[in-house]
Write a structure and sequence with these properties.
- With 168 residues, the protein is of the alpha+beta class.
- It has one domain.
- It contains 4 helices and 7 strands, in the order ααββββαβββα.
- Strands 1, 2, 3, 4, 5, 6 and 7 form a 7-stranded antiparallel beta sheet that branches.
- Helix 2 runs parallel beside helix 4.
- The longest helix is centred in the C-terminal third of the chain and has 23 residues.
- The protein is globular and about 40 Å long.
- The N and C termini lie far apart (43 Å).
Length: 168
């Protein structure tokens, strides 16, 4: 692959509805002024991980193509939850249910490598208490069209959180 832009990688690696969902999500991200940059160097060189940011703040990470820790064709992890944007935002019950199904429960030990806190921590997510949650809060493995719509809503909430924190 000569051009490593996420849209090109998605078009070459994914197919059918999976490709359509991933492209739809990237269109949303770009339309909402979110930067999409490929992680580079060392471990990242042969993988298609993309860091998504808004106004310099981390929003989510996208992996396109399977790796040793994921057999899914694409995966989206939310931000590292250094704010409390996910505690009780305005979501309907259906959106909450979808989000709750994608809470990223920490595998503990060396499995994650991200948390730095094996076993995760307790968190309130949209009014519901979860134990052993990874710092990424949400993980969407191969999200379908319904899950992508939920992801868009979550990204909107995170974007509003960043805008609000930048005005304080």
């Amino acid at each position: 692959m000569s051009d490593k832009r996420i849209e090109n990688v998605i078009s070459e690696v994914l197919a059918n509805d999976t490709q359509k969902c991933a492209l739809d999500f990237t269109v949303y991200l770009r339309a909402n002024e979110m930067a999409i940059e490929r992680e580079k160097g060392g471990y990242w060189d042969d993988k298609f991980y993309y860091a998504i940011s808004y106004k310099g703040e981390f929003v989510c990470t996208i992996l396109v193509g399977a790796t040793e820790d994921s057999s899914e064709p694409w995966v989206v992890w939310s931000d590292s939850s250094r704010s409390n944007w996910y505690e009780n935002p305005p979501l309907d019950e259906c959106q909450k249910e979808i989000a709750w199904k994608h809470v990223d429960i920490c595998g503990g030990g060396d499995i994650c490598g991200y948390c730095g806190n094996p076993g995760g921590i307790d968190k309130i997510i949209f009014g519901k208490v979860f134990s052993n949650v990874c710092l990424t809060v949400f993980r969407f493995d191969n999200p379908n069209a319904v899950a992508v719509e939920c992801l868009k809503q979550l990204m909107e909430i995170r974007k509003n959180d960043i805008d609000k924190s930048n005005t304080l």
